[in-house]
Amino acid sequence: MSKYYKAVFMLAVIYLIGMAALFIITGKKTDWAASERNVIRLNEITQDAVDNWDSLKDMSGKSYGVDYVILGVTNDILLSSNPEYNTSMSIETAIKNKYAYTYVILDGQIVGSVVLLDNYDEYNRLRMRLITGLGIFGVILIICACCYGVYIKRRIIVPFQNMKDFAGRIAEGNLDEPLMMDRNNMFGAFTESFDIMREELSESKKREIALQKKERELVASLSHDLKTPITGIKLTTELLMTKLKVREDETCKKPESANGTEKITDIDDAYMVDKLDNIYKKADQIDALVSDLFSSTLDELGEFKVSCTDEEAGVLSDILKKYDDRGLVRAYSIPDVLIRIDQKCMSQVIGNIIANSYKYANTVIDTDFAIMEDYLQMKISDHGPGVEKDELNLITNKFYRGKKWASSSEEGSGLGLYIAKTLMEKMDGELNVENGEEGLTITLLIPLS
Asked: Is the dihedral of CA 270, 271, 276, 282 positive or negative?
């Protein structure tokens, strides 16, 4: 629309320039007195005046195509072709205004004079009327053009822009703001259809959100319910393994029979212990997976809560021992400070990190501690293959597994480090991932009390 107003402005400027040029060109007065045609007329009038000097009124009926005045010797008006010029006139006035004039000579004596009247004043009046009319017409034309522009803007441009902005808000997911409708809007039918579409999309989105919430609640409920049978499997497996170990110890104290029956029993017991240990490990993996899934679902529902309390930093050593099933963790001295954590969440963070290291590196795990301003820095480093540089910022994303491991037979959900980072942030801490000199290093910044 700005281009339209620029075009109108340029048209107005050009029109004004044209009017100024017309004013200047038509304002130039020609040397009326030197006109050859007027000289001929002047001589004709003078000759008729000489012939009819005694009865000048006889000349009033004859037209010479120009206004004139016949003066006496004393500059009195003897005859005027136009009553409007029945005013004072003299040779001096004619000379001053550059009117064409000549003397009337009768019998060798000057008896009067003839003056041709310049009709420039009438021409000027007509000229000014023409210029004024053209000026008024130009102003009216420009005003009409501006009014038309305003009309186009209000009836077409603004409604179209509103529809464009409305479509942008719909694309951004803002479905609560209706599209205002104008009774004089040329896009009235489209406007109403767009608003109906917005209402339908809004209702559809609400249904989708409600459905997603129900799905998450269902996953959370199932995850919580699965914890009980998994815990039962682990406890039962531990009990059976304990009984087999007790039985093995008792068998070792008894002498072997001649036919080797007890020896066979020992072999069966060792086989059972191995299988029970395998069941326990699988159940433990399922337990970790269900815990991560449960935590992730609660986080999506906005129901995941942490309750931080002041704890001695030595509790981190207990957590490391709890999850170090293979004895690969080498813990260095922990500063004697108070940290503010949710012990259960912190246990899940460290457990997930160690489980990942077991799964993908299976090397010695070094831990290092240092005080960094308001945080206790805890570095957990393995000596495995590490992670590709372009994946370092991705491995803490939900369900992301490295390219190297996504197609491997290694089991995983891609939730471990995501949950760990989420829990650290909820405890006002941080989790950072980087490649060390060898292997992967995960740094935890744990808030001090």
From this structure: positive
